[in-house]
Write a structure and sequence with these properties.
It is found in: Membrane. It is a multi-pass membrane protein. Belongs to the glycosyltransferase 2 family. This is Ceramide glucosyltransferase. With about 425 residues, the chain is an alpha/beta fold. It folds into 2 domains: about 1-275, Spore Coat Polysaccharide Biosynthesis Protein SpsA, Chain A (Alpha-Beta Complex), CATH 3.90.550; about 295-380, no CATH class. The chain contains 14 helices and 11 strands. It has helices at about 1-15, 45-50, 75-80, 100-110, 130-140, 170-190, 205-210, 245-255, 275-290, 295-300, 305-320, 325-345, 355-380, 405-410; strands at about 30-35, 60-65, 85-90, 115-120, 125, 150-165, 200-205, 260-270, 380-385, 390, 400. The strands form 2 sheets. Strands 3-2-1-4-7-6-8-5 form an 8-stranded mixed beta sheet, sandwiched between helices. The protein has a 3-stranded antiparallel beta sheet with strand order 9-10-11. Helix 3 links the parallel strand 2 and strand 3.
Length: about 425
């Protein structure tokens, strides 16, 4: 695992500037950057500014909001004034194509984008100024591709949590994203047996997306213009909660293409998150994954340290008579060593001494909570997302949950609860 994480992330620190960064605009592919906004995310100004300062000669930036009174608009307008040479527009107004509000918010930007290559990046993410150029390099590939090798249809970035708050949920999210999640995310993408993509920051071609619909049924690859029947493109993915993963899966399975995990990272700025927020966030995505990849979801506990420590200790005692306390201590020492190495690899530096004990406590709590959260999530199909209750259906599609049957919503909602969207 050390080889996987080091080779991926040290490239970020040592990556040379892409030739595309200084190439004439007429010689590089154009890119449309789509950023859906809703409200004042933590670090919103710096997050958005990171896309205004990309070292790439030919791109446009489309900032989309659902309503004219959105709190993100003043921030967006201030940045447009600060960077008048950047081709940026604000798109106000959503188009409802499904239950996913992020997709609804993006539809108009998707239709109005001037370029075929789209970079969809969440509003709580900040990126390095060279990210776009290196990502286009990866998406376009070498001038002479290897015969028989599948074309790259999507480039994505490892999420890396940046925490500015001291809430326990925020610390747990940091420990999860920067160790367990990053470790498995990089490993699965290195093996590349199937699509595994988180939609914090993704590049793909609109022309590819216009051929697929999320059915995951392979197209006739002998016909390079074949498309799936019925609605295709981004509107077809409004019925999914995890539209990012389904888009990636559609490009992989329906077009027979592959993904590339860029050397850059997507710095995910985590705001105030309570323990309850963390637990139900993890439970929500376990319930979604259960309906998308059941077998892989059921195996998840066996990738966690606590379950594996029990299996390891039992096996070593039975086979070699090793006392359980020795194997358990050795197991967790090795486990946290690997996790800290993953953290250091992605961050480019070891864990800061000032936060070492806070992180260690959050890491231990995360490891202990993993199995209880899994058991809580696996026996339900209802989730609360952006202030609304949904039932997860087959293949990750969702439907609004009726109030009369929504025990989960009643359990989650506080007094005087107003079911409105609260986050993007």
């Amino acid at each position: 695992m050390r080889v996987l994480t080091r080779s991926q992330s040290e490239t970020v620190q040592a990556s040379p500037r892409s030739p595309l960064a200084v190439a004439p605009a007429a010689t590089v592919p154009g890119v449309s950057i789509l950023r859906p906004l809703k409200g004042l995310d933590t670090n919103l100004y710096e997050n958005l500014e990171s896309t205004f300062t990309q070292e790439y000669p030919k791109y446009e930036l489309l900032l989309s909001v659902a309503g004219e009174n959105d709190q993100a608009l003043p921030v967006a307008r201030e940045l447009i004034s600060k960077y008048p040479n950047v081709n940026c527009r604000i798109i106000i107004g959503e188009e409802v194509v499904g239950v996913n509000p992020k997709v609804n918010n993006l539809i108009r930007s998707y239709r109005e984008a001037a370029h075929d290559i789209l970079w969809v990046i969440d509003s709580n993410v900040t990126v390095h100024s060279g990210t776009l150029a290196r990502s286009v390099d990866a998406l376009v590939g070498p001038p002479s591709p290897v015969p028989g090798k599948r074309r790259i249809a999507l480039v994505h970035h490892v999420p890396f949590a940046v925490v500015t708050e001291s809430k326990i949920g925020s610390r747990l999210e940091e420990a999860f994203l920067n160790t367990n999640h990053a470790k498995m995310y990089i490993a699965i993408n290195a093996v590349a047996v199937d699509s595994c993509v988180m939609g914090k920051s993704n590049l793909y071609r609109r022309s590819d997306l216009e051929r697929v619909n999320g059915s995951l049924k392979p197209l006739d690859l002998s016909n390079q213009t074949a498309t799936q029947p019925g609605p295709c493109g981004l509107p077809a993915f409004g019925r999914f909660l995890a539209e990012d993963n389904m888009i990636a899966g559609a490009l992989w399975h329906e077009l027979g293409e592959r993904h590339d995990l860029s050397c850059d990272i997507a710095r995910n700025v985590v705001g105030n998150m309570t323990l309850s927020d963390y637990v139900w966030r993890r439970a929500r995505w376990i319930r979604v994954r259960k309906h998308m990849v059941l077998a892989a979801t059921l195996l998840e506990p066996f990738t966690e340290s606590v379950v594996l420590s029990i299996i390891c200790a039992t096996s070593l005692r039975y086979l070699f008579g090793v006392p359980p306390w020795i194997s358990i201590c050795a197991h967790f020492a090795l486990w946290i060593y690997v996790d800290l190495d993953v953290y250091a690899s992605l961050a480019g530096h070891p864990l800061p001494a000032a936060t070492r004990w806070q992180f260690a406590a959050a890491w231990a709590a995360r490891e202990l909570l993993a199995l209880p959260i899994f058991l809580l999530a696996i026996f339900g199909s209802e989730v609360v997302w952006r202030g609304r209750a949904y039932r997860v259906l087959r293949n990750g599609e969702v439907a609004r949950a009726e109030k009369s049957r929504s025990w989960f919503q009643r359990f989650r909602q506080p007094k005087n609860y107003d079911p409105i969207d609260t986050e993007m």
